[in-house]
Amino acid sequence: MNHWSADLLEFEALREILRRFVPSPMGQAFLDEMAPLDDQAAAEDLLAETEEALAYLDRTRDAKIGAPVRLRFSGLPDVADPVAKVRIEGAVLDGRELYDIATVMERAVETKAALESVGARLSAKAAQITDLRPALRNLAGKVLADGSVADDASVALSRLRRDRARSQQAVQESLERFVRAHKDDGVLQEDFVTQRNDRFVVPVVAGQRRRVEGIIHGASGTGQTLFIEPIETIEQNNNLVRITEEEAREVHRILRELTASLRGIGPALPEAIALLASLELTFGKADFALRFDCAIPKFCTGRPRRIALRGARHPLLVDLLRGQGKPVVPVTIELDESTRVLLITGPNTGGKTVAMKTVGLLALMAQAGVPVPAASAEMPFFDQVLADIGDNQSIAESLSSFSAHVRRLGAILDSATPDSLVLLDELGRATDPEEGGALGVAVIEELRQSGGFILTSTHLLAPKVYGATTGGVLNASMGFDEEHLTPTYQLRTGAPGRSAGLAIASRLGLPARIIDRARGAMSSSERDIALFLTELHAELASAQTSEEEAQRKLEELDRQQRELGGKWEKKEKHALHEIAQKAEKLIAGFESRSAEVIEGIRAASTSKKAADQAQITAGRVVREMRREVQSLGGPREVGAPSKDALQPGVRVRLQGIREVAAVRRILANNKIEVQAGFLKIQVNDTDVLEVLPPADAPSRLPRNVSFTSTQTWSLADREINVIGRTADEARDEVDRFLDRATLAGVDRIRVVHGHGFGVLKKALAEFLRSHPHVERAEPAPQVEGGTGATVVYLRA
To answer: Are the C-beta atoms of 154 and 252 separated by less than 8 Å?
Structure first.
């Protein structure tokens, strides 16, 4: 990809906008390496990965229970140097470096778990992160946030710190007794105890030195005070120094062991950190896409190619105008194999350059795997984006504006290929208009013959005529409001636009006499062309207004048709409902009368068989009547499935039985044999309320309800670590964890919350006490974390 064109198209300024969404130094290092790619498949993979991240972020905005947690990348320290130091055999990290690495490892573990079953690409990338939980457990609680080693990092360290505290207290008390003894004899300069050279001393008046036996460890700046260690505390101070040195050696040993444990992970640690940084950049791009209302661009595959940008906006302009509370006027550009050249004309300050820069920057963004600010975007995968935008005048190289322009054109002509995108701003500028116009036409024609896509802007007449008379070239113009003499920034295709230089100069305050004199100096042909273009654009505006009005009327007719259709459908349903109600009354009346007749037959006849046969016949007639009524189009009852649907193996719901049953056999006399749980029973086919889909068929859940099946749990996964979370975050995570554990049939889990100030532990204890899944919760045994963890027993 051409780097000087990327600079002209402000790709670096885009990177700075993205930097707001990539907070950590590690993610920003990946952002600094981001560039347009030469491999289409790689760019498409990046875009697909970002699309998954975008969908994930969109789901995190749902406040409902079960929504995925938003990944945290802020606050991650830069651990590049400590990780490199780990690889050096014998090197020892200090406490702060170990704490920072542990923080990053913890975040990597969280991210891996959160993305475990998100999208194909994100899940695959998260799966590459090595399971760092064993190494993290080895570091947990041993190094504190300030870089100091925790007292309980080892048994020896805990003992030494207790001994040091006692020894320090003894020295302090001894010196305080000394101070009280000499408080009023003029020996002491001040009645307090201080330290010099890691020894506890008292301030003595220099002239009273001989009255105090001890070792001098320093003097004040004026020399009036000596800091003396009294003879009676020397041995106690020596003991304190010895214990302190032993403590320092134990701390160094612990740090050495912790560093060695990280070294034992091998390359898995730097690889996990790199994957975490890469995911941070992916989610940063997705966050940018949400804030800037972006679309995932698509690349054309093979031929024919086309550029189709709808509602495209320049991200830097969006960022600038958003701060001013102003909207951006989007542009829509469509080019294809038959029309590969877009020639944009129109007024100064009308947006021609911004339109071209928008196309160029969006092409670079797409090939760097970044979503683009547009309603939709499709474009070829370009081998180069070549641009000549702005004034490249150079005093150092003795280049005038025209010389620099020509030199850049020459480089572009040499480099352009059929797969290039070329952007030329103010083609033929900085020289005589006639010669510049001829040069511009020649350059466009040469580039058109090369087979690439070309966007160019100009004020010159010759390119405008060329665009209007040459096949494959599409004229376009930026809109201009003749009434208010202001640009509208709307891109219209199909006709060239006029520069409106005199109108804009008048609006900007140039005296009217100057404007009139300039108009008089114009040739009649130039005035005629300007007048023609003005009238042409007025006609185009009128035609567009008519088209919009016609479209509005069509939409109104469509709306009215939908309303009428809805009213008719409502009336029809009402009529059918009335028919169904009347039919039900008739059926109910027939059933009542048939029951009376059957009872009469049963009373008058001595043959029970005749009565039973009459009852069967009456039931059959009722069912046939019911089917006839349903065939009229009335609302079908759920409880009247067809006989064809009742086959062995189908699942059914029965009247009066909650459990789903399976049909075993079809029996005579309209009976079926079903199995509901452990029961095998025979029922009438009229007792079937509903025929259910097969067990493996996807069932339709209610709106806004989702189902996620649990995975098989291993013993190593029956714990959750919420250290570092707020109380609300911890409660939410533990709640979801308990749901999954209950579904998986787990009877015991462990919640690791650490010690801290006890706020998190207390909040979780109150939460677990009233949780419906929890039978009881108690502090973990010492081997499982002691009071820094809670063991939870779940209800059966």
So the answer is: no
pLDDT, residue 208, reads: 72
The stretches of 20-132 forming alpha helices (DSSP H) are: 25-33, 40-60, 80-86, 95-114, 120-127
Q: Cβ–Cβ contacts within 10 Å for residue 396, how many?
A: 5
CA distance 81 to 575: 79
Q: Give the pair of three-digit tokens for residue 246.
A: 């032993």
What digits encode the pLDDT tens for the residues 221-257?
Answer: 777 788 878 877 888 888 888 998 999 999 999 999 9
In this model, does residue 634 exceed pLDDT 90? no
- Of 158, 157, 148, the C-alpha closest to 98 is 148
Closest CA to 314 of 11, 35, 22: 11
Q: Is 709 helix (H, G, I), strand (E, B) or coil?
A: coil
Confirm if 368 and 34 have CB atoms less than 8 A apart: yes
For the segment 365-381, the average pLDDT, to the nearest whole number, is 95
**Whether the predicted pLDDT of 725 surpasses 50:** yes
pLDDT digits (tens, 9 = 90+) for 402-423: 677 778 888 888 888 999 999 9
CA 684/CA 671 separation, integer angstroms: 4
CA-wise closest residue to 366 among 19, 42, 118, 22: 42
What dihedral angle (degrees, nearest 10) is formed by the CA atoms of 128, 129, 135, 139?
Answer: 170
pLDDT over 80 at 728, yes or no: yes
Burial of 334 (0-12, 13-18, 19+ CB in 10 A): middle
At residue 279, what is the residue type? L
**Per-residue confidence at 170, pLDDT binned at 50, 70, 90?**
confident
Choose among 686, 687, 792: nearest CA to 742. Answer: 792
pLDDT one-digit tens code per residue, 97-143:
999 999 999 999 988 888 887 778 888 998 999 888 898 888 888 89
Across residues 150-179, what is the average pLDDT? 87
Q: Which residue did the predictor score with more confidence, 22 or 178?
A: 22
pLDDT at 612: 59
Q: Hey, CA dihedral for 482, 488, 489, 491, is it positive or negative? A: negative
With CA atoms as reference, report the closest residue to 29 among 80, 85, 89, 103. 80
Distance CA(448)–CA(463), nearest Å, equals 13
Q: What is the pTM of this model?
A: 0.61
Phi-psi region of 760 (alpha: psi -120 to 50; beta: other; left: phi over 0): alpha
Can you tell me the distance from the alpha carbon of 466 to that of 453, in angstroms, rounded to the nearest whole number? 17
Cβ neighbours of 26 (radius 10 Å): 24
- Pairing state between β 199-205 and 194-196: antiparallel
Rounded distance between C-alpha atoms, residue 262 and residue 607, angstroms: 94
Q: What are the structure tokens assigned to 149, written together?
A: 């080693």
From the number of C-beta atoms within 10 Å of its C-beta (0-12, 13-18, 19+), residue 588 rates as: exposed
d(CA 314, CA 316): 6
Supply φ then ψ for residue 510, to 5 degrees: -65, 140
Dist. CA 107–CA 674, nearest whole Å: 54
Alpha-carbon distance of 117 to 112, in angstroms, equals 10
Query: What percentage of residues in the chain have a pLDDT greater than 70?
Result: 74
Both structure tokens of 203: 């301030």
Residue 349 has a CB neighbour count (10 Å cut-off) of 15
| Mean pLDDT of all residues in 76-93 | 90
Residue pair 529/461 in contact by the 8 Å Cβ criterion: yes
Is residue 779 within 8 Å of 786, Cβ to Cβ? yes
**Is residue 278 packed enough to be buried (19+ CB in 10 Å), middle (13-18) or exposed (0-12)?**
middle
Q: How far apart are CA 408 and CA 405, in angstroms?
A: 5
Residue position matching structure tokens 């993290």: 136
Query: What secondary structure does DSSP assign to 751-787, as a single string?
Result: EE---TTSHHHHHHHHHHHT-TTEEEEEEPPGGGTGG
477-521 pLDDT, tens per residue?
Answer: 776 555 554 566 777 776 554 555 555 555 555 666 665 665 555
